[in-house]
Amino acid sequence: MAKITREKFKVFENVFDQHSYRNIYKLISEGYFDGVGSPVSIGKEANIFVGEFNDRRKPNIIKIYRLQTCNFNKMFEYIRADARFANLKTQKRQIVFAWTQREYRNILKAREAGIKVPTPLVVKDNIIVMEFIGDEDPAPRLNVCSPDKKYLKSFFEKTIDFMQKLNKAGLVHADLSEFNILNYNNSPVFIDFSQATISSHPHFKDFLKRDVYNVCRYFKKQGLKIDDEKVMKKIIQK
């Protein structure tokens, strides 16, 4: 992938605000990557790039939350009931920083619980650097690359196993679907944990029901016969 040089940053000026621009160079100076590769994903709230090295080291992933166009109200509604951020002020930039920190901490918690996720390496304000999942190219999301038929059932079972482990760890993804699961060698990797919520949240169970529904809906379309209620019971069993 072609690296984005200092001169080419202006092409992405709606992505790289000055604050993010400065932090990218701080992260380069700290050795987390040598240059920024072409974008993997440009979204409404976050943009994802490959952090490349000049040698043969495997690249990293750089996730940058936008400081100007994020849905601050939505973010705050999720965070305000999270005891870990009880003293958060309503300043927009601070909300984005807290949202980024929240994803970083949620990924760490998921990883400790035994879920396959990209290992988070560092968080700096609105930027997370994490492990690159894939070979030469980033692993695709499940919505664009379904598991091979012979691995479909095992992929589903591993997904439910991850959801069960998350629940036991007191966490729910709260936005789980085929758009937030990578298919890496016919095995799931969970991503995008910014909305993940701890069990004390008043809507924890509603979020879990929605995750179960979305996951089951996808695998039903792939041909599996699934009972949503049985899946839910399996996930919440002690």
Largest sheet: 5 strands, antiparallel
Unreliable residue stretches: 5-11
Number of individual domains? 2
SSE sequence, one letter per element: HEEEHHEEHEEEEHH
Average the pLDDT over all residues and give the rounded result: 88
Would you report the number of β strands? 9
CATH fold call of the largest domain: Phosphorylase Kinase, domain 1
CATH architecture of the largest domain: 2-Layer Sandwich
The class by helix and strand makeup works out as alpha+beta
Can you tell me the CATH class of the largest domain?
A: Alpha Beta
Residue share in β-strands: 15-25%
Task: State the shape.
Answer: globular
Q: What order do the strands of the largest sheet run in, or round the barrel if closed?
A: 1-2-3-5-4
Classified in CATH, the superfamily of the largest domain is Phosphorylase Kinase, domain 1
Number of helices: 6
Rg of Cα set: 18 Å
**End-to-end span in angstroms?**
46 Å
Helix content class: 25-40%
